[in-house]
UniProtKB/TrEMBL annotation:
<keyword id="KW-0378">Hydrolase</keyword>
<dbReference type="InterPro" id="IPR002509">
    <property type="entry name" value="NODB_dom"/>
</dbReference>
<dbReference type="GO" id="GO:0016810">
    <property type="term" value="F:hydrolase activity, acting on carbon-nitrogen (but not peptide) bonds"/>
</dbReference>
<feature type="domain" description="NodB homology">
    <location>
        <begin position="148"/>
        <end position="335"/>
    </location>
</feature>
<dbReference type="GO" id="GO:0046872">
    <property type="term" value="F:metal ion binding"/>
</dbReference>
<dbReference type="Pfam" id="PF01522">
    <property type="entry name" value="Polysacc_deac_1"/>
</dbReference>
<keyword id="KW-0170">Cobalt</keyword>
<dbReference type="GO" id="GO:0005975">
    <property type="term" value="P:carbohydrate metabolic process"/>
</dbReference>
<protein>
    <submittedName>
        <fullName>Polysaccharide deacetylase</fullName>
    </submittedName>
</protein>
<dbReference type="InterPro" id="IPR011330">
    <property type="entry name" value="Glyco_hydro/deAcase_b/a-brl"/>
</dbReference>
<keyword id="KW-0732">Signal</keyword>
<keyword id="KW-0479">Metal-binding</keyword>
<keyword id="KW-0119">Carbohydrate metabolism</keyword>
Amino acid sequence: MPAAYGQDFLRLSPTNADMNFYTQIATSCYDMTAYKDAYLHVVFKGSDKFTISFTQHNAECDQNKAPYPETWDSIEASRYSSGEDIYVPLSHFHINFMRPNSIGFHGFYARGDVTLLKVEIVSSLPEGMKLPEKLPTGTLALRCKRPNSFAFGIDDGQPQYAQEVMNMLAEEDILVTFFTVGNGLLDEAANFTNVYKEMLNRGHQVALHTFSHPMMEGLPTTEKIDEEFLKNMEVFKEKLGVESRYFRPPFGNVGARTRQRLAALIPDPYIINWSVDIEDWLWAGSPTPEKQLEAFKRDFEKGGDIAVMHYLNPTTISYFRDVFQLVKKSGKRIMRVDQCMEDPSAPPLK
């Protein structure tokens, strides 16, 4: 993100909602449980249309392990701002305070600079200040809960490759999770409705991925965010006859508004990002497509166990069997995302 530093300020100049700035608390784990009743205080100038997040370190307290960070919780800055001050109870960030990692500023959805003048932890509020209630934000997961498990989260692809992918999954005898946009299911020529019905019949999980694949946190209003969720849910019900509590944000872009609106529409939702990236978005159409396999191996060897990949390009699909075999040979068990999260509503493992 474009930024300017001074002796007593940091000016951020975001151009989209995917840009972020994090101020690290410690390189390893740092126990902040004694501060759970304290407050985050931010003094700023400019727009308050952004997200503040508190990240949680991984269990190994090692930034060379995946995922890093392991998860985070978020609040919408505008709900807590008063003038040039933002006060947030640390208890509004639902993380493990035995291993906090950093404070993040991201999800900017208004034009203009944001200048940070102070970021500190304080023990009390100014006299008479009232704060909003904490809104539910669901569970953000980048790591499986079930020991020795691995989940492939496959986002949308090209319909002409769907049958090949289905056959490969059957031959490998594995179940995965498909994150699916709603508008593709309405395209009769693409035949995605029949594709995902067949996926469901074969035991795969099909989960939400918005209606039209926008960068959610960059949408101008919560009404637009709701529309993406509601249309995705409606099309799932109409075309596939299913509902889902699982959602993957397009581009991995997720902030407080997106999480709050999802949790308002779906009880106890899971927001699923990833800790293994095959980087098909970077290498699939390049002169070096083999770097996709290298990227997968790199993240897997760091300990990642939830993957992101697409069936958009034949070079990516050509590596599917390689990565399936890589995970199998490690001794990890491949399963759906809901199974790796030990969701009681998930089908039992076979």
